[in-house]
Amino acid sequence: PPETEKSVRIVVQFSYYDEMDRLEALVVELLSQDPVAILTDSWFFAKRELPRVLISSSKHESPVQNDYSAAAQRSTDFVVVSPQTHETGRRIEQALSSRAATASGVRRAFSDSKFSLREPQAVSPSSNESSNRAKQLLSDGNGALFGADLLWRSNFFGSGVRIAVFDTGIGSKCTVVSHVEERSGWTDDGLVIDEVGHGTFVSGIIAGAHSQCPGLAPKATILSFRVFSGAQTSFTSWFLDAFNYALAARVDIVNLSIGGPDHADIPFMDKVRELSAAGVTIVSAIGNDGARWGSANNPADMLDVVGVGGIERDGHIASFSSRGMTLHEFGGNNAFSYGRIKPDVVTFARSLSAPSHRNGCASCATLSGTSVAAPVVTGAVALILSAVDPLLRPSVSNPGAIKRALLEGATRLSGSSMFEQGAGLLDISRSAHALQRIAVEHARAEAVVSTALSGGDYK
């Protein structure tokens, strides 16, 4: 999970697209108090057609060009003010929170949170033994990816499902993740290529086609969002910027193999809810804080996010996997609130194998943690969505239907509480059947409503 700290950077979030000019004038006026302050804006605020750095393999126009006005109407946006000193930052933050600023379209002003990516184990080259074990995971009926091979035999590989991976990017010349539509960079270093290995590993688990360490949904479309720098650091504002673009790109799933304890990061949580309301399913790691009750990380602990925990090969909860229940509802005005059951589901998270970011992803690497359990579930969601009739798929491509299918399909583990395992171990085959049933139920319900409105008989 990230380690958070407050920086001098002030994020100014606003709601009214038509007020951009007035808001910009207000911010510039405030910045005149600090001659060396820097104004950094998002691509959305600057009316850019592409993110700061973008490599696209698609021959189509950018989704921002196709759906810009619609995305603008539903999205909040922001500018980042970077004063030289904390004193100036506090002054600007207070001024932008005033009534005058609110009247100009400012929704809130807040200190930008800086956080770091860390794992219980570094990405390392896999041995022959671990590589063979990983291949077994993909075919063994008792393995982490139970049921995936049944869908593969029916020719379902994730086709038609769009997945945004928010991470450290994908390695250079990594052809084993073959359906990468875009690589975009949202950090200050202007790069899109993975220098760490984490993002390549995660993307490989979801949609890799490596013969030695294949992913779950190799024909799913990947949009790689590099939101962590080479130093494995990020800011809330970088995520907000990338989330806006993901909305415009009309992705079906967002994989967040990150998490942290900063439940007070309201703008981040609001944006997650905005994506969920738009029908985007967000899958997030529950965290690696170990056997401590109430240690579930954000955003995996949110109601509309699929929170993923980890287990060992023997079926026991992994020692590093965070536990529920959620605790941030307690206190303050929520004295009579209660926590939610988290994680939602669990899957295997120890020594999984996926492509290494080095040498064009020619070899495999191993990694443990809930960060690698989350993309297993993301790949599973892509797989079960692709198994739904394309005409019915839009009705179930949303967080409600997906979570219902995952929870109904999961298998309870003996000896573990609901705050350790949620609904239980991911079962791809059972969840696929559940989602297909939900799609048919929805179609029948729609037919009943349509027939009733037209005055006809429904049988």
UniProtKB/TrEMBL annotation:
Residues the record marks as active site: D167 (charge relay system), H198 (charge relay system), S371 (charge relay system)
PROSITE patterns reported in the protein's UniProt record: SUBTILASE, SUBTILASE_HIS, SUBTILASE_SER
Highest taxon listed in the record's lineage: Eukaryota
Gene Ontology CC annotation, any one: Golgi apparatus
Keywords assigned by UniProt, alphabetized: Hydrolase, Protease, Serine protease
Keyword Protein transport annotated: no
InterPro entries: Peptidase_S8/S53_dom, Peptidase_S8/S53_dom_sf, Peptidase_S8_His-AS, Peptidase_S8_Ser-AS, Peptidase_S8_subtilisin-like, Peptidase_S8_subtilisin-rel
One Pfam family of this chain: Peptidase_S8
UniProt domain Peptidase S8/S53: residue ranges: 158-424
MF GO annotations: serine-type endopeptidase activity
GO aspect biological process, one term: proteolysis
Family: Belongs to the peptidase S8 family.
Name the record gives this protein: Peptidase S8/S53 domain-containing protein
Provenance organism: Erythrolobus madagascarensis
